[in-house]
Amino acid sequence: xxxxxxxxxxxxxxxxxxxxxxxxxxxxxxxxxxxxxxxxxxxxxxxxxxxxxxxxxxxxxxxxxxxxxxxxxxxxxxxxxxxxxxxxxxxxxxxxxxxxxxxxxxxxxxxxxxxxxxxxxxxxxxxxxxxxxxxxxxxxxxxxxxxxx
Length: 149
Known about the structure:
Distance between the termini: 40 Å
CATH topology: Dna Ligase, domain 1
CATH class: Alpha Beta
Strand content: 5-15%
Shape: flat
Radius of gyration: 17 Å
Strand order of the largest sheet: 2-1-3
Number of strands: 3
CATH architecture: 2-Layer Sandwich
Order of helices and strands: HHEEHHE
Structural class: alpha+beta
């Protein structure tokens, strides 16, 4: 990741964290950002543990997933265009978050957006943090037939 892009992402994160925590001061350093993400990571793990059966949580790992506002709607889908990071520890969470945020500007995502005539400002990147589980299998479930929509 280029240093200019990384600097812009850091500035964005500082403002985002400041607003999301309801504070007016902004973190001043990389250490402050990491400390804030570590604090939120531990709060998240406590919340998940408190609301789950103990045997369901077998890992301390999380994933960061893209969830861009305006990305999927009638006639367009950004499926597979953005980034996700799996099996992140507390120490790697901030880096995973950054990768998902800047994934909006990956070559496939920009190409798709330009080909579809979608302005950049219509795609607002959000990041979800999801607890990893010790799964045996996975899949997709539909609430209606996708071929008859």
